[in-house]
Amino acid sequence: MIKFLLKGILRDKQRSLLPIVVVTIGVMLTVFLFCWLTGILNDSIEMNARFSTGHIKIMTAAYSKNIDQVPNDLALTGVDSLMIKLKKNFPDMKWGERIRFGGLIDAPDSRGETRAQGPAIGFGIDLLSEDKSETERFNLAKSVRRGRLPAHPGEILMSEDFSHKLKINPGDSVTLIGSTMNGSMAMYNFTVCGTIVFGTGPMDQGSVIIDIEDVRNALDMNNSAGEIVGYLPDNYYNEEKVSQVVAKFNRLFPPSKDEFNPVIVTLRQQNDLGNMMDQIKKVGGFAVFIFVLSMSLVLWNAGLLGGLRRYTEFGTRLAIGEDYSHIYKTMIYESVLIGIIGSVIGALIGLAGSFYLQKHGLDLSSMMKDATILMPTVFHTRITAPAFFIGFIPGLFSTVIGTMLSGIGIYRRKTAQLFKELEA
Amino acid sequence: MKKNIIPLLMLCISLNAQNPSAKEIIEKVDKNMSAESRIFTSKMVIHNPRNTRTIESKTWSIGEKKSYSEYLSPPREQGTKMLKLEDQLWIFSPSTDRIIQISGHMLRQSVMGSDLSYEDMMEDPHLLNHYSGKIDGEEKLDDRICWVISLTANTPDVAYQTQKVWVDKDRFIPLKKELYAKSGVLLKKMQLSDVKQIQGRWFPKRILFKDVLKDGEGTEFLIEDINFNVAIPDYILSKASLKK
């Protein structure tokens, strides 16, 4: 019977085209919206993880309490031995030492006097060793706008906007004025080797990236680091795996009263990301629910209309002796087939569009020029497992339920009146 | 009658000498603490929560607002020079061969991570020029009887709008100070000790500064050697001397 019905659907386009188109559009939009919301959440998490939080972060207890002030006087010391211990106990994790700092970038004139000066957010990361993971995490190679990445000690990368503001070009010399770990004023000369565009408002406004060893020299932080960030092997944040790492770390470094004891925090515990993730999930889930519900109503109505449009056909079929329940069953089977066809096509189109945006992204930087929080300016969709079946909820079930409801009317048709109805 | 007036006058003069006004006390404190010019070598022992650092410097100053310091040790700070003229400060860093100018609120930042600000370190303000005082009472401080004087700034451009000062009654030296912001928040505490007679005046050779907004046990400012009212060549207090 299914083969017969399928032939009917494919051959009688008047009967099947509109329902399939409606289901396809509805499912496509549902899938795309779901992937879009998932993508925004993931982009935000990933960006924060790469630039700021890691999947986990290790710092001193005192530093973690005042992390917003980036208190490098409370930084981790003896980092070499700590890193050896971490690499030994967590061989699958990827680790990165970082020093974040604030300071002034001072551009001198030909006489060495201050020509221009601006406040900067600085990142000291490993740029010059053979391990290029930090360079990749910051996506530096692709972010270079002018010049090149640092290849020698004493070189600095500046954000493109910042370099324009201070009228600095690659090859120019600048002085970093900051504060040492001990609170003394620190002054250190650097040569600008390149400029970069991060694609995030706050970072593009005034940031510099320097090799961590140079930062250590400049800020008198020998063998110290403000933070050690850790990433799971597949670079994808997973709460369960992170919890395991945290538990093991806490066994290795039991919490103590020493304010310089290393402590571990997860991505969720930083920058209010846990709250943000929960909120986005809630809001996203609610948005998807509302959308699925509205699409379900639309497709339900489409099913109802389909039933009504075929009022005459059902009358004729009843008149020539077809059983009520047989007609009802075939209607439902047909709607299942239409739902499946529409859902598959809609899901495929939705997934194809999502895949395109997952790969290329949608650049909304012009709309986020003045953003002050760390948010991506190029948004990507993200295809996850639920995206493959979420479209079937409105696409298949709603169509079928709509048809089932409209089909009840078949049982109310009276055989004695059928010919009168048909004549009319 | 005349016989009675003279002892009465003598008594008044004597009582006045024993209970001088706040202004008179401040004037005498200024005479001890300030000078037309000073050259001194000092050590700052900074007690941070993690470590203790000692920074040695030599300072030349004229009046209230002109001062020049050169850091002698440790090696990282050696050769750093600071020149303060009025409300502007220039810092020379030998490692960068650059002179950086700072001014405004930056002058209230910590010097070398200590509990002293640039203003604390490089200014020699006459209290009487900036504050009016009121005697709150007397207190015993380390076996010394002190006047407790509240100072309120007459001008808005001072770092500390009010001060509470414990002045040694015998030597006219502050032994303790509490420095407050305009809001009334206590910013710093100072304990002055090791008071010695130097060139005809009492002077504390050890001052413990404690920035109450900072962790740590404060910064000891130790005067190794000091000369008052000596001639200082003009070139020392000029920008040209920074790179020399």
Describe the structure.
In chain A, a hairpin with a 5-residue loop joins strand 3 (94-108) and strand 4 (114-125). Helix content of chain A is 52%, strand content 20%. Chain A folds into two domains: 2-48 and 275-423, no CATH class; 56-231, no CATH class. The model of chain A has no long low-confidence stretch (mean pLDDT 85). Chain A is an alpha+beta fold and 424 residues long. Chain A is built from 16 helices and 14 strands. In chain A, helix 11 runs parallel beside helix 15 (392-407). In chain A, the strands form three sheets. In chain A, strands 3-4-9-6-8-7 form a six-stranded mixed barrel. The longest helix of chain A has 41 residues, at 13-53. With 244 residues, chain B is α+β, with helices and mostly antiparallel strands. Chain B has a domain at 20-63 and 107-229: Lipoprotein localisation LolA/LolB/LppX (outer membrane lipoprotein receptor (LolB), chain A, Clam). Helix content of chain B is 16%, strand content 48%. Chain B is built from four helices and 13 strands. Chain B has helices at residues 2-18, 22-33, 118-122, 127-130, and strands spanning 37-47, 52-62, 66-73, 81-85, 88-93, 98-103, 131-141, 144-153, 162-168, 174-180, 186-198, 201-211, 218-228. The longest helix of chain B is centred in the first third of the chain and has 17 residues, at 2-18. Chain B is globular, with a radius of gyration of 20 Å. Chains A and B meet through strand 7 and strand 8 of A and strand 6 of B.
